[in-house]
Amino acid sequence: MSVILVLVAFSIIVALVFLILFFWSVRSGQYDDPYSSSVRILFDDEKPKEENPENSGKSHALPEQPSNQ
Amino acid sequence: MASFRPKPDTSETISDCYHCGEDCGNYPILFDERSFCCSGCRTVYEILGKSNASEYYRLEQHPGKKVTTGEFGTRYAYLDNTEISHDLLEFSENGISKVKLFIPAIHCSACIWLLENLHRFHIGVRLSSVNFIKKEVTITFRDQELSLRQLVELLASINYIPHLALNDLQKDQKRKVSRGIYYRLGVAGFCFGNIMLFSFPSYLSVDDSIEHLLRQNFGLMNILLGIPVAFYAGSGYFVSAFKGLRKGFISIDVPIAFGILVLFSRSVYEILSGTGPGFMDSLGGLVFFLLIGKWYQGKTYQALSFERDYRSYFPVAVTVISDQGEESIISLKKLRTGMRILVRNQELIPADAILVRGTGSIDYSFVTGESTAVFKNEGERIYAGGRQAGASIELIVEKEVAQSRLTELWNQDPAGQDKKTRWNLMVDVLGRYFTIVLLLLATVAGISWWFINPSKAVMVVSAILIVACPCALALTLPFSFGGAMRVFGRYGFYLKRTGVVELLSRVDTVVFDKTGTITRNDDLHIDLTSLDMAAGDLHLIRSLVRQSTHPISVAIYCSLAPCEADPVSNFCEIPAKGIEGTIGNDFIRLGSEEFAANRKSQSQKGNCVYITINGISRGFIRISNRYRDGMEEVLKSLSRRYELHLLSGDNDAELPNLIRFFPSKDHLRFNQSPHDKLQYIRYLKQQGKKVLMIGDGLNDAGALRESDCGISIADNIYLFSLSCDAILESSRFRSLGLLLRFSRDTLRIVKLSITLSFIYNLLGLGFAITGNLTPVISAILMPLSSVSVVGFITLAIFFAGLRFSANRQAGE
């Protein structure tokens, strides 16, 4: 039964690791702005440099129209 | 308002601007098979397309904001001044610079994406990251390739215009994020969880040698874990209780600090002496719950600033003309009296000054709320805070920025600073009585037990202090006011602190500013009844004003029935006077009485435009500000409960329209200077009234600060709000009565839940006084009371919020 003391010591160490990780996340500013990180993760990764196919020609295919200014 | 409503159908209609979603009208600008409302929006779209950033439009529908600015020309030239840019940059070393910019236009996920992809627009941008909560973007860039000015111009060209103001130059004033509460919460949560595990054996009353060994060791672990809980996580309560006591008042933190201390020392004693398992689990729970309350209460609107002074409005730099006629840009901090400054179109006049060249057409809308421009001639004095609309003017500075008539209102520090402590806020009153009663009770119980059983006296006294620790009570206010603050936030009403809910619920007098507060400053009311013309002749006026871009001309043009525009010849606009022109055979003049009717202006009240055709006077058009939607209902409903007052910087032309809402004529004050307003509020307070002031312009700033609770009303809450306790979006003005009612509902909820938590306290005291408080009872009672009180409050606020929104919909 006294093995439980060893387990307790071990579990405390594991819990401490998590506490330290929590400190680190606070220090690195993760709690300052919860909103932007929540949407940032949904942005697509950098695409290849070429124009992506679904938007092809969206901005350049049409001839420049005279501006209405 | 319409743009806030969700679109009725999902398919985008052809007339909605692809960039900003506004109605494009009859003549949308077509580009790339998409329609745009203005060439500004189209240009932004074009820039985004070229930089391969069309992703922007896929993240949100119509993510842009309508483009309102044109070319910026030399508008940001001051950023080339090294002194100014040095003050703005966070750091600049080895060709790498970092700057933090406040961009009010940030509003959706597409904004975040775009601003974090700035490197697509310019190779010089190395890194940019957005803080959405604060609407800030931090940009690291190579200043060899991209200057600060170019960076700001780049942002402005995609219509994310940074707000640069005088206070950005003072770095020390920037608020630092306080993360202490997170660390404390983390520590308290960690210790609380582990203490609970270690306390588990003591809840089960099995007794053999192994259990005994475990208990002993677990007890020691609990002491180790209890130390950071009491003296790190809970240290805030000791500090605040001590500070309060030193100033001579007893706050609610005193019994809490007592409770923490007694819990800890009694537990240590019990564990070490082997007389019991201690109360460390209760201690952990107590501090953890209290900190959650604190955290909940501490959430604020970080992008909004409630501490604005003139420095947030005034520009960073100003153009100075030397004696030799050379223009140079200096930091506004360096502006001295006697300097000759150049103010261009749409620039702000930074200090009281005398006009020496050009004609001033000064828009004081954010000083007074009055949007009609005031004309000034050479030699006249112009007060700081106005915005020039028209050609450039030159001025000689009379007073330094900090001594201007407006800024003095901030510098003369009224007693307003400590106004919060002069009120007996509920939490203070409670804390005081609670502590006194508690100490009395503990003494009486201690003395009685001394005679019955001296060995138990100390135990009973400490049990009383432990169980009476007002945990549920201390959670009541943060959760109810914090919840109310969030409900308010959903309806465009933002509070500075949670405590403002209580201020709001207890006011009995409401003072309004007139112009810009109960009137709209974006819409003029045109009254044609004094016009001596046949309806068929109105087209002459319409054709003439069509030629002018002056706000009054535009308003008159819009108010007249559409008709065929006649060609106008010999059109001439005389600044500060009016316009004239010939249509057919008629020579028409429109403008001030002196100009059009050729006579000294009589004391006609209000703003009037006179008309003469071929030299014959044809009456006048009266221009007044239009009242906000729902103004009548708001004033009517408020007058039932509150004493209403009105302070206006204007003349009393509107008195007949307003008098019916106010109890007597004395309650309407016209021609009030900013200082008069402040004095009037002070006078009302001296009569023992609790004053709520609602204003908008800088001229109300003193009054807002002097009042018990000041609400600033603003069209753009991120830019033009004043130092105040709360900010109301101007489009939500009609809900004002309901908002105040909701604050009273909240106070009722608070009273109920205080009663509830007192019942728990009495229950606990019953156990304590009779000497039956065991650790298990304490460990059950404390979380139970806290959780049930918080649960009650959350539900009650939720239902009150439902009722509020139902009433609001019924009212609209």
Outline the structure in words:
The complex is a heterodimer of chains A (69) and B (812). Chain A is mainly alpha-helical. Chain A has a domain at 1-35. Chain A contains 2 helices and no strands. The longest helix of chain A is centred in the first third of the chain and has 25 residues, at 3-27. The radius of gyration of chain A is 26 Å and the shape is elongated. The relative contact order of chain A is 0.05. In chain B, helix 10 packs parallel to helix 27 (775-811), helix 15 (454-467) runs antiparallel to helix 26 (736-769) and helix 16 (471-490) packs parallel to helix 27. With 812 residues, chain B is an alpha+beta fold. Chain B folds into 5 domains: 2-59, no CATH class; 80-173, Alpha-Beta Plaits; 180-299 and 427-479 and 745-810, no CATH class; 315-349 and 352-398, Distorted Sandwich (Calcium-transporting ATPase, cytoplasmic transduction domain A); 492-520 and 628-741, 3-Layer(aba) Sandwich (Rossmann fold), CATH 3.40.50.1000. Chain B has 27 helices and 28 strands. Classes of the chains: A mainly alpha (69), B alpha+beta (812).
